[in-house]
Amino acid sequence: MNADPKSLHGLVGRVALSVGTFVVFILGWELAVRALAIPKIVLPPPSAVAVAFWEGVREGELHWHFAVTLYEILAGFVVGAIGGLLLGFVIGLSPLLERIFYPYVVAFQTVPKVAIAPIIVVWFGYGVASKVVITATIAFFPLLANTIMGLRAAPQDQVEMMVSYTATRWQVFRMVRLLQALPYIFVGLDVAIVLSVIGAIVGEFVGAKAGLGYLILQKNFNFDMAGTFGILIVLSAIGVGLHALVGLAQRRIVFWMDMAGERVMGA
Amino acid sequence: MRPFVSSSLRRAASTVADADAAGECLVRITGLQKIYRSKDGSDIHALADINLDIQPAELISVVGPSGCGKTTLLKILAGILDRSAGEVFMQGHRLRGPSRAIGVVFQAPVLLPWRTVLGNVMVPVEIQRRDRAEFEARARQLIAAVGLSGFESKYPQELSGGMQQRVGICRALVHDPSFLLMDEPFGALDAMTREALNEELLRIWSTSRKTILLVTHSIAEAVYLADRVVVMTPRPGRIVDVIFVDLPRPRTLAMQNTSEFGRFVARIRRHFGAAGTLDA
Hints:
By secondary structure, chain A is an all-alpha fold. Helices cover 81% and strands 0% of the residues of chain A. In chain A, helix 3 runs parallel beside helix 6, helix 3 (61-93) crosses helix 9 and helix 7 (156-164) packs across helix 8. Chain B has a domain at 24-70 and 82-101 and 212-274: Rossmann fold, CATH 3.40.50.300. Helix content of chain B is 34%, strand content 23%.
C-alpha cells in the first residue's frame, strides 16, 4: 500500500522465489526430457511447447478458438451466477420456498454435469449455446449455496441492533444481511469462475465446432502433444486471470474484510 | 396509538404502589413476566412480576448476578424480545415493539464494519428516515462530544474497543431519544477506560437530561452512577430491592471511598449473600 521498506522487501522476495521456482522447474523438465530421451508425443520439452504456442499465435489459429472459449466461459458464468444469486436470495429469505425448492436443487447438484453435457448438446446444438448452458449449470450452484449461507451469516446482535432502532425487515436486509452476504457471494464467484473454465472445455469435448477444447481434441488426434500443452497454458492463463479479476473486485467491494488489525491505539 | 387508560392498565395500576406518579412517570412497567420454554418442555422463569416506574431524567441502574433477567428486562424494553405477561407503558402509551423514542447501547459495540464512524452513528437516522442534513450535524456534534473528532471517516476496525463503544453511545443518542437503555455497555473494557467512560456518561446525562436505564453487574458502578439502584436476583428473576442513592452530584471517583458509599454497596451486596456473590 505505502512505501514501507519492509513490505517492499517482502514483495521482491516473494516474486524472486516464485520466479526462481518456475525457472528451476522448466529447466528440470527440459533436461529430464532430453536426458531420458522421452518421445515428443509422450511428453514434449518446454522448448517444443513454446515453439508450438508461438506458431499458434503467429498463424492466428489460437486467437479465434481463444475468443470462442472465453465467450463461452464468461457468458455461462454470468448466466449461471445470476441464476444462482437470484434463487439464492429467494431461498435464503423464505424458509417456505427453501423447503419447496432446496431438495430439487441438491438432487440436481448431485448429478455430474459431465453426465448431462451430451443431453445439453443434443438440445442446444454443436454451437456456442450448448457450452454456455453447460457452463451455467456448473457456475450456478456455488453462487446458490454461498448466497443462502451468506444471507444467514448476519450476526444476531447486528439484527437486534437494527430492530431496536425500528428497522423493517427490508431495512435489515438492505443495510445488514445483504452486506454480510457479500464475502460469501465472492467466495461463490471465485469457485464459479474457475469451474466455468472446466464447464466450457467439457462442453467442447462432448461436441463442438470451435474453441480451445475442440482444438485440444484435434491436436491430440494428430499426436501434436506440444500443441496440446500450449493450449493448456492458455487455459490456465484464462483461469488465473479471471480468478485474479474476481479477487480484485472482492478487495474493492468487501474492503472491510481486510481491515482488521489496522488499529489506532488509545481508548 | 391506544388511549392511555385501558382496562388492563387500571387492573395493573392497582398493583403499583405509587399510583399518583402515573401521570409524570416516563416508563411504567407492570406485572412484567418472561418465561422461556426450553426444548425439554420445562419452563425457565426469567422474569417474575416486575413492577417499576421510571421518572423523566432519572438514571436507574439495574444490578444483579448473571441469570437474574436484567438483560431480558432490557431487551423487552428495547422491543426486541416478546414478553410473556404484563405491560410496559412509555409516556402513557403501551409499548409494542421497538420505539423511536428509545436508544440502546449494547454489551458489544455492534458497529457495522462497512460503515465509517459517521455512517454508523447515522444508522438510526436512516432507519427512521429523519432529515439527513439536520441529524448529520447532530451526529458530528456527538462524535466531537465523546472525543472522537477527526475519526468521522475511520472504520470501526481501526478503532480501539473503548472508542468503538463511544461510537455506539453516539448512535444511541443521535435520534434524540428520551429513554436510553444501556446493557453493561462498558463491561468488556479495561478498568481505566471504563472509569473514563462512566465519567463521560454522567456528563452526557447531566447535560442532556435523558432518562437512562443501565444494566450492570458491578455494584460499585451501579451506586456511583445511579439515582436509584434496582437489585435483582435470579430463579426467578425479580426485583428484591430498590435503593435511592442520595449521594450528592456531581459525583467524584473519590466518593467511592467514603463510608456512605460503602453502606450503599453493603446494602446491595447483602441480597446476594444467599444467591452467591456477584462476579467482578
